Please model this.
Amino acid sequence: MGIQEWTWVTVGMTFAAYLYIGVRSRVGTTSGFYVAGQGVPAIANGAATAADWMSAASFISMAGIIAFQGFDGSVYLMGWTGGYVLLALLIAPFLRTFGQYTVPDFVAERFDSKTARLVAAVAAIFVSFTYVAGQMAGVGVAFSRFLEVPFEVGVGIGMAIVAFFAVLGGMKGITYTQVAQYCVLIVAYTIPAVAIALLLFGNPIPQIAIGEALPLLDGLQADLGLDPYSSPFVNTDMLNVICITLCLMVGTAGLPHVIVRFYTVKNARAARWSGFWALLFIAILYTTAPAIAIFAKTAILQQYVDLGPTAFLAQPWVQSWAATGLIDTQAIGASGGDVTAFLGAINRDIIVLATPEIAGLGAFIVALVAAGGLAAALSTASGLLLVISSSLAHDIYGKLINPDADDAQRLKVGRWMILVAVVFAGVLGIYPLGFVAEVVAFAFGLAAASFFPTIVLGIFWRRANRQGAIAGMSVGLAFTFTMIVLMRASVIAPDLFPEPIIESFLGIKAQGIGVVGMLLNFALTIGVSLATPPPPPHVQRLVDRIRTPYRDAAPNA
Model:
């Protein structure tokens, strides 16, 4: 069978498994729908968290950015991984001790304010919609290439699958589907890397084969007149490398769809063990990504040198991706020996999906990678859609608009909100703001500017009050969003703004601007809290209770 036939088989089998799990995990209570009944074992929650967090950006796009940016692309590895350590140690066990269903639940109870709940719910919706756009775009990329359907149709298929198991099983269905999706995506990601490392270097461990591949790539780039691949700060200056890394780190610790996963286990100790398992599972993919990036970049440049632009375009894998519009053949033909222009004609999001074809691996492995990419995108999309649904149905409808609504009414509204969110997510996926990982990076900036300071101060500073939290979240989110729009206007609306309205803020570009928003949030929350009355005594007792996370704990892992 060819690539397309194998893709239909692998994707069909994995989708059937997801739908089966969704049916078996269907729920009839709000507790099951929003937090899976708080009975998920730590190791399963770790796998589900890893799948939830390792999105299309991690699976499809991260290796592409590392391949094209070299050392500077490592900000994604450092930021996302470091953020997870921060989350597991600093936030997760304390929030699990608090309990409830959502991050806005914590904000509302901690700051004793319905207004704070509303601001937090709006922030959660805002961050999640920005993030889910990248996931749906990743689904469209994978479907358009491997099933040879239009990009928009691919996004539509992904929307239908996610809507089915998310509406039926809520968090419970999503959790166990994500466990299966983690197994699919990690196998799909590591097998091609092992095969290529063995084929090219006789070493089956990709992380070790990097030691042989990197000097080859450095030499190849030098021969072509490019900066060495491993040279730092070539594409991004030091200030922005630091800001982007920090932004991704604190953004990870503030992402509502990741935080809510720690509500699904039995107690605070299980939440911390979930963090350990998730980090272990994530590390397998994150230490493999640089290997794939280096292997792919080496192979592409070597083929360009050996064949020249004309013969390069005639290769089957190039023709296949050119048909999707993700390789610009006209730009390559017109590059005239300009290697930078040649590389600029290749979309970075194709690197992982195209690497097996570039290396001449079998059709089954190519199809397996496609199934893995779809698993990564769908797992994260489902978690984000549940956050959007819970923010609308639980925090806004159930807590603010109709507090007397019974369990059945809240469940019904929650399911309808998932369907509404799926439609908007699909539209955002078809019209994304940039490359998949870039769009996702903006979501991290918004999360860093809105939730991280509020949660950290809410846990560790008894004096933080509602006025400070509302001011900090509102200004942090508004500032970061405004800066991103001003800097990316030429991508969002190129007809109106052929150039960015501003290039940077104090030298910091869009992907790292969340750091400034975070600092504004911290400063305003602290300043306004000190200038207004302290929280009432029952809130201060709540803070003391949250900070003793093992009080209720019984070992679960």
Observations:
- Confidence is low (pLDDT under 50) at residues 552-557.
